[in-house]
Amino acid sequence: MEAIVVDELQKQYGRVRALQGVTFAVRAGEVFGLLGPNGAGKSTTVKVLATLTKPDSGRAEVAGYDVVRDPNAVRRAIGYVPQSSGVDRDATGRENLMLQGRVQGMGGRTLEARVAELLELLGLAEAADRVVRGYSGGMKRRLDVGLGLVHRPQVLFLDEPTTGLDPEARASMWEELERLAEGESLTILLTTHYMEEADELADRLAIVSRGRVVVEGTPEQLKQSLRGEAVEVELADGRGSEAEAVVAALEGVLEASIDGRRLRSRVASGARAIPFILSALEAEGISVESVTTHRPSLDDVYLHYTGREFAAEDEQGRSVGGGRR
Amino acid sequence: MTLAIRHTWFMVGRQLRNLMREPIWIALLLVQPMVWLLLYGQLFKRVTHLPGGGFGTTSYITFLAPAIVIMNAFFGATWSGMAMISDLDRDVLPRFLATPVSRISLVVSQILRSALIAVIQGAIILLVSLALGVRVHTALIGWVVVLVAAALMNAAFAGLSQGIALLVRKEATMIAIANFIGLPLFFLSTTLISIRQIPHWMRIAAKFNPVNWGVISAREVVLRGTDWASVGLHLGLLFALSVATAAFATWTFRAYQRTI
Q: What is the pTM of this model?
């Protein structure tokens, strides 16, 4: 059974093409991650699925209902946790949850019991009757998740659930979400730009870049799809782009990219490539702080696919759009 | 329809609960009308003796009090869109939009909240006026009419303010527009002075000024010789305007949804 079906979604804001044919499917009970840089189209996709905005073309179904033709049925079946906290800060945690339940058609003892259960589950029981204004960032975010869950939805959308949280709050949020995914037999779609988060939480994920899904699979599959090994060189000085050019030109180097002072490259064999890389850099007078090698991580997958997509996009932009600037 | 009413009830409940948590605001918002009533009313108490008259009473504060209730309701309304902007900024609105909540209830509840505050403040102003010696000529029914006029006055412009909030979505722009609408309409009314004392062109402008409709309805029932037909007509006009601006706010709400 598929909980979410997304087929060739297109959406344009003025002249910005936010979605350019997004396609993917999520099975019931799965935790699915949409991973991509800011502005890639993740949030827009979620807004379409949560019936907040309509696509220009394409089709999307959530819990078996079409998001355009049957939005109210979708709204009853989903929970939506927006990117920035959507809680009412002047109300208490309990009041927030009660109101959310009421507009979802719940009431009476059922609602009261559900709210109490959620407050307990999210570790907010003690703070339940305090005004949200005094909550910490992590507590507010947990309440946001609670608001999405009150009416026991089939599908939960989490738009950047841990952005802006400190590492400790993030880790506890991850635990929370993992427990929920199991306990509430939910389908979860989450967007994130944290590799770690996608790796940790998602059963499967799609990497989105420039309004399109560029690759889809389990984190394991995606990592294995990259041949070879990742070599990471930390440069002693700031001649990053030079170093990138030098290394990219070497034989046996599949790709290279620079991120600050960190030069990431993927090579067929680390043991064989490292001496070449080091001597080539030395010949240019670029000094090196450290070298590490590891199996390709999700970071490498991400760089590989979004990097390639950028290049392809530019070519297409020139031939199709002409002058976008 | 019944669903829309139920949801409006929930949403108004939310607004009032939040307001009751900080009732100090109602008191703070009363400072300005009190200044008008107590200081301005004293400062100009002799104007009722001006040749040409037209005040219908020799007590300026009796003339002024019902109009201050209306003025307060009017200015409160011009600001009421700020609450909508705050809900927009904090993503409260998008969260509700992803639920089956009645769309109309999100707009109407804001207008009702605003009107209710105007009524509460109006009652307080009337009580203070009573203490200052103002007598409402038509007694209890007069009180009710003044408060109904305040509610309609407020609702008419709260609808407009909500609509503007949804169109501009910025606090600074909202403040500028509120001032731009508020002061001219206030001074083009008979809030502070009798119609016979103002220039001819202003009399004509006042006729078409909704703020003046409110002032007339409220003042008629306070002073002697109440013209009930005029009260009914002006309350009716305010009601029609309230319906129109509520429709405008609902329309802008749809426009807002299209831009998400």
A: 0.82
